[in-house]
């Protein structure tokens, strides 16, 4: 920011003419009048034009400073611009990483390879802000790519739809929670949705049954995302997952085993239950293993 200001001063010094002659009284009067205009108490300013140019330059520069009032004001205007162009957002989503109980955060902070307790995880999270922020950015990238179905590199849609369907636009911001970690808020605009309350009421009045059925179908579609099993294969013999054989579900699968060890380290003998097997080599896997392999291979 300071380098850009220095270059601008060298290339166009006339922009800063008169700044060295400004007095404290002129700046105070300009700030007071600008606040009155913002509140609607005045329609035009009568203060010094040089003072207003100086304040405008300072506001533009401070909008690049994180967590400043000017930055918040800048992004608030950008949000209103999105709303003017696309209408009211259809979804408001809060993305909060589970940093208090995340094994990934412990790994980012250089923790042990064994599964830690929740107290140890919280200590690792609160003691390493970089690891917590890294977990947030990892989940934010996954949310944009897989849930929204958008590629942030090319600023366009991916070959497949995201979990929420066809997304027209989105706007997201990150803020600090009360416990000190970060989380994000998203406004999401979906395709083929009413842009405002008037359009919504008109559509309900004319085609209420069709519209409500489409809303119900959309809500059901967000709860499932089909994954082709033939895109995954057995880690031992390479046989496709499309021919997996289901195993009987044991009784202990319905027990809350981990709940017995709240605040303590989970014993190493507690493992994921084996629920499927390969039809060729008879190797047995957990359903979580099959899902992880499918997601990593797609």
From TrEMBL:
Chain ranges of the Helitron helicase-like domain = 21-188
Pfam name, any one: Helitron_like_N
- InterPro entries linked to this entry: Helitron_helicase-like
The name this protein goes by in its record: Helitron helicase-like domain-containing protein
Protein species of origin: Phytophthora cactorum
């Amino acid at each position: 920011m300071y380098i850009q200001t220095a270059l601008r001063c060298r290339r166009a010094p006339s922009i800063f003419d008169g700044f060295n002659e400004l007095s404290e009284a002129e700046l105070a009067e300009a700030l007071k009048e600008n606040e009155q205009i913002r509140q609607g108490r005045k329609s035009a300013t009568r203060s010094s034009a040089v003072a207003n140019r100086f304040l405008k330059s300072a506001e533009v520069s401070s909008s690049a400073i994180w967590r400043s009032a000017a930055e918040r004001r800048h992004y608030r205007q950008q949000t209103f611009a999105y709303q003017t162009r696309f209408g009211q957002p259809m979804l408001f989503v809060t993305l909060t990483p589970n940093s208090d109980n995340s094994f990934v955060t412990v790994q980012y902070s250089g923790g042990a390879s064994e599964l830690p307790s929740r107290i140890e995880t919280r200590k690792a999270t609160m003691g390493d802000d970089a690891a917590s922020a890294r977990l947030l950015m990892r989940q934010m990238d996954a949310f944009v790519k897989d849930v929204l179905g958008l590629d942030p590199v090319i600023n366009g849609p991916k070959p497949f739809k995201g979990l929420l369907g066809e997304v027209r636009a989105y706007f997201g911001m990150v803020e600090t929670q009360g416990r000190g970690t970060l989380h994000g808020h998203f406004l999401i605009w979906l395709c083929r949705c009413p842009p405002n309350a008037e359009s919504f009421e008109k559509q309900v009045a004319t085609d209420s049954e069709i519209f409500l059925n489409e809303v119900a179908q959309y809500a059901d579609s967000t709860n499932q995302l089909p994954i082709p099993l033939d895109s995954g294969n057995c880690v031992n013999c390479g046989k496709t997952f499309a021919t997996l054989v289901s195993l009987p579900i044991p009784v202990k699968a319905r027990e809350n085993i981990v709940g017995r060890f709240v605040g303590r380290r989970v014993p190493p003998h507690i493992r994921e239950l084996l629920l499927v097997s390969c039809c060729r080599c008879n190797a047995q896997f957990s359903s979580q293993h099959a899902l992880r392999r499918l997601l990593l291979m797609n």
